[in-house]
Design a protein that fits this description.
13% strand, five-stranded antiparallel sheet, Phosphorylase Kinase, domain 1, three-stranded antiparallel sheet, 384 residues, Aminoglycoside 3'-phosphotransferase, Chain: A, domain 2, globular, 2 domains, alpha+beta
């Protein structure tokens, strides 16, 4: 049954000192709100609140609210609810540095809590039915008035990564070395099963492939050269590739939005933020996603393999990771690259703004185009 909380702020100006005092159970005499930059949050507004008088809290905390411009897409994807549930159920036990949960609340929804079964049924329909249901789902999401709010620790002494600037090879090794600890901890682990909000990577493969097919030709008009052969190859094969990827590779917990803007650094350690897209599936998807977002176009294939070797050494050192070879990782990495390309082909559906967000996406697509040179379509064709 649906339940509704009595009051949740929906706009930044509603995050008052009085309200914060009540829900954080400590006096807050004043609050100053700071938006954390253009292009930081695509689906949500990310605010840093500077607190005064809160003796038992840090001077700053982070609040996340749905972004008005992208709220419908965020509702359809379930990103706001998913991040809250991740922090509630996994935040205290993942082997990564992540912000501490301070408060979370949202309006419950019966349809959302049955989303796994609903999506499985929809994804079995012919593609033309799926497209119609996707349109209907957009209308339903637009009519919903659910509220979401997440308050987490502000990582005061850590500096955010800059996806626009990118990251060098050693930095990529550091990030993926720490991510390997997450992947190995949940490697074929049933702890990722039976959570209504934690979806398998392929649960909506048909819907996502349908979206790709609707937008890919438009995307190719402005995409860098060299992407067309890979994206045209995906048109009749994308859904099958996704399902094969998930069926053949070991399952683990994925960040699923592992880009450089979602990593912060203190010189010796990384921390990982923005868990709105968390899913379960093949580890190589996170690896491909991160390297396309962070790694300069000039980096060669042998250098990429060197980075992957660092990741693989940490992953394979875990007692529970057995029988997964580097060759398997390299093949899965190629599949992951194609899935990232498929996802980014629909980027026109997201409001990026005119500033850093658009510039960052342009850089991401250039880096993706370079990494797609590592994809051997003939080899992948033989595995389908």
């Amino acid at each position: 049954m649906d339940t509704t909380v009595e009051y949740l702020p929906e706009r930044p100006d509603e995050l008052t000192a009085d309200w914060l005092s009540r829900i954080l159970d400590t006096p807050v005499s004043q609050v100053r709100r700071e938006v954390l930059g253009d292009g930081v949050g695509f689906m949500g507004d990310v605010l840093r609140l500077h607190l005064e008088g809160a003796d038992t809290l840090p001077d700053s905390i982070v609040v996340k609210l749905p972004k008005v411009e992208n709220r419908v897409m965020g509702e359809m994807l379930g990103v706001y609810e998913r991040e809250i549930m991740f922090f509630r159920e996994f935040g205290h036990r993942v082997p990564l540095r992540i912000p501490r949960l301070l408060y979370s609340e949202f309006d419950r929804d019966r349809g959302s809590e049955n989303q796994t079964e609903i999506l499985r049924r929809i994804d079995k329909l012919p593609l033309f039915f799926s497209n119609a249901i996707s349109f209907l789902g957009n209308k339903i999401a637009a009519a919903k008035k659910r509220r979401y709010l997440l308050i987490i620790e502000f990582l005061q002494d850590m500096q955010p990564g800059d996806q626009l600037a990118g990251l060098d090879i050693d930095g990529c090794k550091q990030v993926l070395g720490e991510v390997a600890a997450l992947h190995s901890a949940y490697w074929n682990n049933r702890a990722v099963d039976n959570h209504f909000w934690l979806l398998d990577l392929d649960i909506d493969a048909r819907l996502r492939h349908g979206m790709f097919c609707r937008h890919v030709d438009s995307f190719l008009q402005t995409a860098p050269g060299g992407m067309a052969d890979k994206l045209n190859w995906l048109k009749p094969r994308g859904e099958r590739l996704t399902r094969q990827f998930v069926a053949c590779a070991p399952k683990t917990l994925l960040h699923c939005d592992l880009r450089l803007d979602n990593v912060v650094f203190d010189g010796s350690q990384c921390a990982f933020i923005d868990w709105q897209l968390v899913r379960a599936g093949p580890a190589a998807f996170d690896v491909a996603y991160f390297l396309t977002s962070a790694l300069d176009e000039s980096v060669s294939t042998p250098q990429v393999k060197d980075i992957l070797n660092t990741y693989y050494d940490v992953l394979s050192a875990a007692d529970n990771v057995r029988g997964y070879t580097f060759d398997a990782l390299w093949l899965d990495y190629q599949r992951g690259l194609l899935l990232v390309a498929s996802n980014l082909s629909s980027v026109e559906q997201v409001e990026l703004g005119d500033g850093r967000g658009q510039a960052m996406m342009d850089a991401w697509i250039r880096r993706l185009a370079a990494r797609l040179n590592d994809v051997n379509l003939q080899q992948l064709e033989e595995t389908l």
